[in-house]
Amino acid sequence: MFGLLHADRASTLTSPIITLVVGREQRLFAAHEEILCVSPFFLAACRGQFMDVSSKRIAIPDEEPEIFSSVLEYLYKGDYYPRLVQNRRRNTWELEAADDGGPGASESTVYHHGVDGVLLKDTVVYCTAEKYGLEELKGLALRKQGLQSGIQCSTILASARYAYAHTPDTDSKLRAHYLALIIRSRSTFKRSGTMQLEMHAGGSQLFFDLFVALCNHVDDVASAA
Prior knowledge:
Helices cover 48% and strands 15% of the residues.
C-alpha cells in the first residue's frame, strides 16, 4: 500500500511545528518539520530558502488549500480522501464511499483558481506531487484517477491541458493516461463541441501527442488485421 506514516505515528513526532500559509485566502496549516522534509521541496524550504526562520512559516500562495490538505493527509496517513479501499469479495481496489453513503465521485473534482475552472483532483495532486518530489504520491494519484468515471469531456480536456502544463516532457504516466482515455472514448470526444474548440485553440503539446497515439493505434489495428 502507498504511504509513508501510519496515523498513530503522529503522536510520536517531536520535531518543530512549521506553519504553512497556503493559497490566495492564506489558509493556515501546521505540520511537523520531520513530515514535511520527506519532500525535497520542503527540505530545501526548511533550510531557509523559502521559510521565515524566526516564525517557522512558509508561504505557498499559488497552491490550492484543498490540494495541499490532501498532500498533508497523505504524508501523515499514507492516503488522502477518498481513500483506496480493498473489496475483498471482488479482490479489487475501490474508492471509499462518501460520508453520506453515496459514491465518492463528488470528491473527484476541485475548483482551481489558477485556471478559473474545475479540474480532476487527482491530476492536480499528481502535478503537486511532481513539484514536491513525492513519487509514491504520484503513483497513488494516478491509480485513483483510473478509478474515476462519468467525468465530463470539458473537465477531462481542461485537466489534460493542466497536466501537460505542469509535468515535464519526460512524463510518461499522467500524459499517457489522458491520451489512452481520449482514444478509448473517441466516439464521445468526436461529438464534443468542447473538443473541437480546444483543438482550434491549440497551444498545447497534448494534441500532437494525441495525433501520434491515434496513428499508433491505427497501425496496431492494421497490423492485427
